[in-house]
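Hey, does this match?
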Amino acid sequence: MNTFIFDMDGVIVDSEYTFFKSKTDILREEGHDVPVSYQYQFMGTTADFMWQKMKDEFDLPKTVEEYGKEMNRRRDEIIKNDGVQAIANVKDLIKRLYQTGFKLGVASASRKEEIIRNLKELGLDGYFTQAVSAEEVEHSKPAPDVFLHTAQLLGSEPSDCIVIEDTKNGTRAAKAAKMYCVGFVNPDYPEQDLSSADEIVKDFRDIDENWLQEKK
């Protein structure tokens, strides 16, 4: 194996809370007072998917596009105030992988512009050869499209790829792509069903150099 593909939200960037808050607030303003936990089911999916599901469930009056734009506007405000925050120890892991000789890519459900912005803000853009948004493929996670497209752009076979994911939808997508999947248990987020993953880590420091060489 010679390629690592990272999810972004909850794996590289501490950003899931911006989705939770913005969507929950919008629904409340539309008259639907749901708990934040309602949003957990959408972790790893695209804005179009989640807003279509909520529009159907709650008979929301605006279009999916309008809700997506409003969510992103609110998220951008939160990020502007809080800054882009990295997940603990992920920067060191990315640098170690790069130095070890792995090809690196990002495959995320987020907007392409957001992926690029986050990597630049964290000083990580120089380590990744490809950064792919689910907007660029036909089907979002849990379909394998975004991982397969990223591998293709990297010039890697699926069997050569290791994916790091923190959600049920993401791990299912990685396995549907026939890739080795590391499930990351993020202690700051709600527990996810990572049973599809080949192995699970709770701290990126647990992925040590011996493990990397063995996989490579």
Q: What stands out?
A: The radius of gyration is 17 Å. The chain has two domains: 3-14+84-215, 16-82. The CA atoms of residues 9 and 15 lie 6 Å apart.
